[in-house]
Amino acid sequence: MVEKSLILKEAEAIKNWLCTVRRDFHQNPELGMEEFRTQEKITTYLQEMGIEVITGIANTAVVAMIRGKYPGKTVALRGDMDALPIADRKKVSYRSKIEGKMHACGHDAHMTILLGAAKLLKGMEDRIHGTVKLLFQPAEETIGGAKPMIEAGVMENPKVDVVLGLHVTPEIPVGEIGIKYGQMNASSDTIKIVIHGESTHGAYPHGGIDAIVAAGQVIMAAQTITSRNIDPRKSAVVTIGTITGGTQGNIIANKVEMVGTVRSLDPDTRRTVLHRLTEIVEQVTKGLGATGEFIREEGYPALINHDNIVDIVGENGRQLLGENKVKIIKDPSLGVEDFGYFLEESEGAFYRLGCRNQKKGIIHYGHSDLFDIDEDCLSIGVALQVKNALTILGEEDIDEEITGTDSTAY
């Protein structure tokens, strides 16, 4: 049994406050770029702590600064804010009050953990060398709110040296974390393919150019990209999700539109897939007398962790929770996470925080209308983010210097 660290004790001392904050967020979910109440609540909490707050960035984002007494590095901690358009079916006192909206992916917990970390770090600022930036980010589920925040300069002045993020997961029991070296989440691109033919009577197909037949050939050819153009040791997915074309059963279709998604785990694979798709759409349709148009809507980049920062998270997890409480995630996810934008700007790591509790029935995955967390994970997340930030700032001994927190103040 690992001896409980003082940082973890401090985080546990504010558990009631954390639960109150999280449940308020959970009852009042807001969708991406609509997080106005959420922004106001976060700002109020931070101001009550005496923390410098910056708003007016990327619409509903909140940035806060904890400036240590001494110069040093800058570490950023990120928490996403937005909910999902899902009706909450849980039978709990804190279920969503907003019809058709729900924190079904744990972002209420992420904001709460970041506020808890802010509370503890603010109490240590006289001993800290460097700066901690708190990034409350909107619209992770939709447009990728990390990108406009970066474009607004949140990673500068002072320049962020290391950025850290976490995500609660019911795949891991509460009291444990999951770390992943290297590639963790895929990049995503939305693709649209438009094929133009020439309509004619279905009884006389030679008089036209069948856009549906051309579309079928494009779909089949596109499926060869992952099997014949991508190194089998790497991963990519090409999915066509919708197809629309034709007006009547006895008319050769003159136009087909298809929409799909491309997922990949590294930039080179991403470029290869998109290049081959462009060639296939243009050349296959040309060979059939039609014309093809390939349109790409760029999505999130791949989330690729920096191994040296993952080492820090893993070691801190073992120190706080125990040697066997840190799980190595072997396989990357082809789901997306816009934290990858931050990792393009600085070193950093993203990790999983266990929130599962079988006995309490907390077993439902993210984006489920029954999703919930074991709130014990809140204190654990706070302690980990605080210890990670302190380690990066070179304050590895500060855990032994904490004299105690008056939990009644919260």
UniProtKB/TrEMBL annotation:
Its cofactor is Mn(2+). GO terms for molecular function: metal ion binding; N-acetyldiaminopimelate deacetylase activity. It comes from Natronincola peptidivorans. Mn(2+) binds at C105, H107, E141, H167, H367. Residues 189-285 form the Peptidase M20 dimerisation domain. The keyword Cell wall biogenesis/degradation does not apply. Transmembrane segments: none annotated. GO terms for biological process: diaminopimelate biosynthetic process. Pfam families: M20_dimer, Peptidase_M20. This is Amidohydrolase. Keywords: Hydrolase, Manganese, Metal-binding. InterPro entries: Amidohydrolase, Bact_exopeptidase_dim_dom, Peptidase_M20, Peptidase_M20_dimer. The Mn(2+) ion enhances activity.
